[in-house]
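Researcher: I need the complex structure. Ligand is zinc ion. Inputs:
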Amino acid sequence: MEPATPLPALALARVDGAPARGSAPSRFPAGPPPRLLALDAHGRILNWMSWQDAACLYARDAVAWTLGEPCLVLHGGVNRWTGRRSVLEIAPIIAARGHARSRIPDPTPPLTNAALFARDQWLCLYCGADGRRTALTRDHVVPTSKGGRDVWENVVAACIHCNSKKGGRTPQQAGMPLLAVPFRPSWVEHLILSNRHILADQMAFLKAHLPKRQRPSG
Ligand SMILES: [Zn+2]
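Model: Output:
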């Protein structure tokens, strides 16, 4: 009699660790393999995860349910009983068992320059200069020298010219009005802004979970 489900263990054995011959993802468009959207079993959005982490969830039988058509196919080792090569189809959205999130419902995304510039759409929020043509900096709307804090609500992307022109003044004092009001991105917004290769299924799911107050246009 055949042992029960030997496939996951074999797949894990080949997928675990650095991508080696025969174990790399074999079905995705050119470019980096997509990241997978991890949910807890209640459908709450957790984070992006690598295909290696996703494969581990499948192999440990820790996938509660999935959404979307498989976006990756992993080939593992050969099953010693059937002689067939194991195949693991990875879904773009994966809910894991035993991952109930007990923390605050909407954690503050880490404030990095990359995340800040993405929030401000790679534009200087004073003159509108395109950050792809000029270097951007992190400007504190209320300068730190005046007690301004290094938080999402008090920082904007600014070109070097505007940042030095504004100096240690507030926008009012400098006569430099902001083009938009800085805000703290929700966790879902953060996930959208932090991944340039979001699959259609993932984007539809994330957009449905955006806060009502603002949805990206277009
Ligand atoms: Zn500027």
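Model: Summary of the prediction. The first strand starts at residue 36 and ends at 40.
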